[in-house]
Amino acid sequence: MSAAAAGAAQAPPGPGSGARAVAAAGSEAWSIRLAALSALGLYGGVHWAGIVRPGGSGDLLGMFLVAVVTALLLPPALEVRGRMRRAGAVLALVIAALWAILAVAGVPLAALRPDRWDTLVVGIGDAIATLPALRVPYRGQDVLVRAVLLSGGGLLLAVGACLALLPRPRMFGAAVALGVLYAVPVVEHAPTHPYLDGSVFALLLGALLWADRLGQREAPVAIGLAVVAVLAAAIVAPAVDSNRPWVDYEALAESLQAGKTTTFTWNHDYAPLTWPRDGVELARVRSRGDLYLKTADLEVFRDGAWKQTREVLGGDDDTEFAGGHPDWTQTIHVSIKGLRSEQFLGAGTTMLVTHSTKLVREATPGTFEAATKPLRRGDSYDALVYVPRPGTVELHRAGTEYPSYVLRQLTVDTPGGAANAAVGPVEVRFPPWGAGMAPSARGRGGFMFVNPDQALASAGLGRSYQLAQQLRGGSTDPYDFVTKVIARVQRGARYTESPPPPGKLTALDAFLFRDHAGYCQHFAGATALLLRMGGVPARVVAGFAPGSRDGKDHVIRDLDAHSWVEAYFPRYGWVTFDPTPGDSPARSQQTDTRSQPSTAPSAARTTPSTGDRTSDPAAGGASAATGGGGTDLTLPLTGVGVIAGLAGAGALMAARRRRRLERSGDPELEELRIALVRSGRAPEPDMTLARLERLLAGNDGALGYLRALRLARYGAGSPAPTAEQRRALRRELGAGLGLRGRLRSLWALPPRPRELLAALKPRRRRSYTA
Question: What is the SS3 assignment for 28-89?
């Protein structure tokens, strides 16, 4: 080595070499933090993406990039000079980051326009309200719910990145944010290999917390200790794992969910109706046209009422499917809101349920139920349904070739009565239309040769059977019989949810022949009973009327809970009929005047005089719809009421303040004392006005207030401080304290009415002249 080289090697470092070394060390630490942040953030992001189906890994990757860019732009924003400018820069960065996260999460760009932010905020609020009771992975199709779920991960990434990449990093805060990013989805749906998964997370979390602090000598030792600790934890974890959770987070989430949950019992009892009528939203259904939403078929008439039964297996045949009518089959999407139900909402005959957030099993032919836990807020699914809508001519020509599997819909169960006490309950079977046979009866214990007339009479159904035969004798075909039965049930009847007690009669017998008053259970139950007795297969159906329109969705509320009738027609299947009058709550909700065009065809809202409502759920809704076309003034009136209340409260407080000041003997001086106390400047016992003037000598306006107050107190008829002087003192009380100080000064020295009127009075402009 030459002497020059040796001298250069031994020469002390130059004046800038220390700064460069510090900068290089800081840059290396920043790079390590960025690498650890990327590893842990992406690892947690992959898990967070699994809370929706299909997964949102690509969305979370985009959000991670947004988070890193936000973290890089945050330090320059914090260095902007001026408090207001700095706050504006940070606020603009936060808004831009939120906008980008929502855009990446799948919110349509049209909804992110600034002029639509109010609607977006309301929609996001509604989506957030459903999250506590939501079941994940979320398989629903609600765009905002999916976006809110994914955006939560994006916000956690942004917070973690900003805290980790600050010039003075807050690594513990970043670790908490990214730990939540990983822990929440793991709690909701456990990974396939939980111990391995947790071990990787622990190592990445340790790297984020300590990697930038370790030197080259400490790093291998630290890594070895971390691996040993993680392996030991992986060995111990299975031993402490328990099948019973320490915290039942599902029950906790359900208790925190927004709004109330409503459960219905669908069997008929004809007692005064106690179903809720609060207008609570239960579900939203997206479908083509209006559909009656079925939850259960009440196929058995037993003990004088219609009830559900499990005597028929779910896989049995139940209906025919008409060819040449593809519009009668469709897939509906159902989102559960405030409903808790074991039954799935379907329509007509439900053939298949897919994309469900709950396990599904077939309950009875054409209906499905939850296999484990009931449906509740946040659940959703798709249902393939068949809803025939044959016209009048088609129904008249349907014929009477009933398939054998619907003949079970031509029976009623009777208790037997005194004449058949030894036989026990009796099943009476009515012949199908056109069979030319008489009814038959048999005991449930296997006894044959039971007199059906005696069985019907003992059950209080004799008059109903005679009425059915009378109506059948005057009908030309099954459809004509259906229309006549509905007309007879509705004749002279009124809708009431508190029907008279039936007394010694059965409920339906009292409804048909004495009271003519009831609700949907009475109308549907009597219609289905008469149809069966006349030879037309029929059953009662329970569920919800179509509800009201909200854009593309039907909103189903507790007002829409309903019962109606299905009658079977060969070649078409089960056709919907609704004999309940149009003024019932469920029927009146079918037409929403706010969403219907003003020039709707009148034919679609006409009720035939024969009572024919067939499968058109809109029929009979005109009378209910015509009363609601006005403007909804609830929100404006509420706003006016709030403003009036605030104004009244302010006036009352001002009056009380004024009386208090007047009682003090010197209101102006007492007001100054209160202002000083409220602004945090409580005066000392020996404080005088002259001393206050010396303390505020640097502010001419405040000084003018004190001088005017002193002259008014000790002078001869001097005026009180002016509005300008009061405003000057108010500015001095809040000086240097920012927005909080200005608000506090308003509270300390509130403006008088004359000041407010002077501020509101328009100033006259003067022309600019020499």
Answer: HHHHHHHHHHHHHHHHHHHHHHCCECCCCHHHHHHHHHHHHHHHHHHHHHHCCCCHHHHHHH
